[in-house]
Amino acid sequence: MNIVVPVKLVPDLVEELTVDASGSALDTAWLRLIINEFDDHAIEQAILLKEQSGGQVVVVSPNAEGVEDMLFTASAKGADQLIKLNGDFEDGVNNHGLARALATLLRDLQPDLILTGVQAHNDLDGSLGPLLAQYLEMPYVGYVSGVTADSGKVVARKEYPGGLIAEMEVTLPAVLGIQAAEQPPRYVAISKVRQAMKTAAIDEQEAATLDPSGGPTVSRMYQPEATEQATMISGSEDEIAARIIDIFKESGVL
Amino acid sequence: MATAAHQAQAPTPSQTFFASLYEVASGERVRTCLQCGMCSGVCPFGYLMDFPPSRIITALRADVFEEVLATDTVWMCVSCYACTEVCPADIPVTAGLMTRAKEELLLAGNVPTELQGALENSQRYGNPQGESPRKRADWATGVEPAVTVLGRDKRPVDVLWFVGDYPSYHPRVQLTTKALARVLNALGIDFGILGPEENSDGDTQRLAGERGLFEMLAEKNGRVFGKYQFNEIITTDPHAYNALKNEYPALGISYPVRHYTQFLADQLDQLQPLLKQEVNATVTYHDPCYLGRANGVFDEPRALLEAIPGVKLVEMSHNHATSLCCGGGGGGMWLDGFQWEKAHARLSEWRVNEAVAAGANILATACPYEPPRFEDAIKTVKEAGVLVVKDIAELLAEAL
Ligand code: SF4
Ligand code: SF4
After folding, report:
1. Which of B138, B143, B215, B229 is most deeply buried (CB count within 10 A of its CB)?
2. Which DSSP helix (H) or strand (E) runs through B151?
3. Residue A151: its pLDDT value, please?
4. B116 Cα to chain A: minimum distance (Å)
5. Residue A106 contacts by C-beta under 8 Å, 6 or more apart in sequence?
């Protein structure tokens, strides 16, 4: 099975985030990037699938600071092919633009299965998986925590609120949004990562001009502001619901 | 040992492991093991290990080392050097056998999740806690006179103070760090710190089996040391002292280094007259494994304590070379949950019980792992009542 894992680096929340002079974007001067946590699980799930039923794993990431280290770590864990997508990603790109750029590349790779993190904390225009599925005309299942391969299809376990788990047969090729791999992402010794840096190659591909249409435009980015006003609504559930609807109507959102 | 047919085949895990031990200083002494079992008997967690040290050697001799790799109880080893201390054949049990065994487990991916987090943080942020490197000198805010940060203040200093991970970030241990800054200032020492440029010394990561990470961190520190002018290094942390003294030189990073207790004891003539306030207490001193057993520093910390007016020093039943580990070494600091699950006992609680039995009301330490560990233990040991944990630096600062 040919598994492709598109991943991205996101701002590391260990450092405090600041808004730049334009007032509508993050200040990148002090920004540290880290692999999106869910993407890390997608890589782990892909390697587990490969270990269970063979195949190959390709990890793809748009270029960003630290992307090589992240890709070599994936290689040390067991990824077979590493692709860095070069393009105009510097100032950040929305998921619509990224999904279009990835779709072009992914078509050529002819994957059986695309695993990607179900979401990222900097998704402003929905998550990447469903957009990819749309552009590639493939089925999509999100919030998946566990995948088993079966000839020509996979069984994905999807979690629902209340501890309910569904098992779904998904016809391939397909896109899955991974919430959690069957086991936590493995640790790989630094010596193995250093070895991968010497032996693995990163394939660089050029993205076509990015087309961000469909995504939102950020007009203002700011730290949460404390407001002075809060109203506690009391009463039965029905009364509270009716009052909330009234408030929405009064404020014009309904 | 090996027959001709044997030699033609790929080496077995036991053979490969045995050969790798030869690369450790005195590693070949493993051959002289008497199988007396003293190492396993003295080991604080030996009774819980499927393969305590002597049995690992048995497994190697029986050519079944893969059985050792299949269990996870090697992670109970807190790298305390108690086994090495008692071994009649002078085998490097801690530095060689146990550390190499952990390295093999780690390479095989047999790593408890808790430990994994600390290793990943060390790699990414240069500290096992996953704190922002930019905040490494935040503890010094408000310290007067202001602490020199070499990268910011750009001036040569006499003493480079390698502060360390827990002294920089842990809220409890920061109190110790500030106390040591006060003592250094009172003595008029010309010192500076690296602040955001300092990385974890990496020694505990090394003893937890992550040699590659240790080398990476050491190289980073080595590069930063090379940027600045200073005459010697002092450390808060015995693990950092151990790394800088015994491990960094092999990587080409060689500087004169002293633990702060050695540094201060060497200046006792100047320090003693400054210690004017009485600290009326019965104090017992816990020898940290990496100051005491591993490096033979027993007297200097005691000399400092005895210089404090009012202090009565008493010894616990395990003292000097027989000291009991606090449980934090060799990765134990990052394996509390794992070790609790296996042992349902904490080494720090045993130690606190000993301090109480010795009649102490202050348990003095000289290692940043200890105040949080012992203070947690005091909460769960009923008899511990009034026992207080203080780093020697804190007691000195109180006496100023
Ligand atoms: S104490 Fe030394 S000689 Fe005795 S069993 Fe242990 S390693 Fe062998
Ligand atoms: S170093 Fe300490 S914990 Fe590790 S095996 Fe030796 S005695 Fe046991």
Report:
1. B215
2. helix B150-153
3. 83
4. 6
5. A4, A6, A60, A114, A132, A136
| Residue B56 beta carbon below 6 angstroms from any ligand 1 atom | no
Q: Which residue of A has its CA nearest to B213?
A: A190
Looking at the fold, whether B198 and B130 belong to one and the same domain comes out as yes
Q: Is the pLDDT of residue A198 over 50?
A: yes
Strand A81-86, strand A202-206: pairing? parallel
What's the whole-model pTM score? 0.91
d(C-alpha B31, C-alpha B89), whole Å: 10
> Which of 158-217 (A) contact B at CB < 8 A?
184, 186-194
- pLDDT surpassing 70 at residue B242: yes
CATH number of A2-206: 3.40.50.620
Whether the pLDDT of residue A152 is over 90: the answer is no
Q: pLDDT per residue over A82-96, tens digit each?
A: 999 998 877 667 899
Are the C-beta atoms of residues B27 and B91 closer than 8 Å to each other?
A: no
Q: Does residue B116 belong to any structural domain of this protein? A: no
* Domain housing B339: 268-399
CB contact under 8 A, A192 and B123: no
Which of B102, B114, B121, B124 to substitute to test the interface with A, most A CBs within 10 Å?
B124
Q: Are residues B260 and B140 in the same domain?
A: yes
Q: What are the helix and strand counts (H, E) for chain A? A: 6, 11
Find, among B82, B188, B205, the residue nearest to A191 by Cα: B205
Q: Does B280 have pLDDT greater than 80? A: yes
Which pLDDT does position A166 carry in this prediction? 95
Q: State how far the Cα of A11 lies from the Cα of A30, in Å rounded to an integer.
A: 10
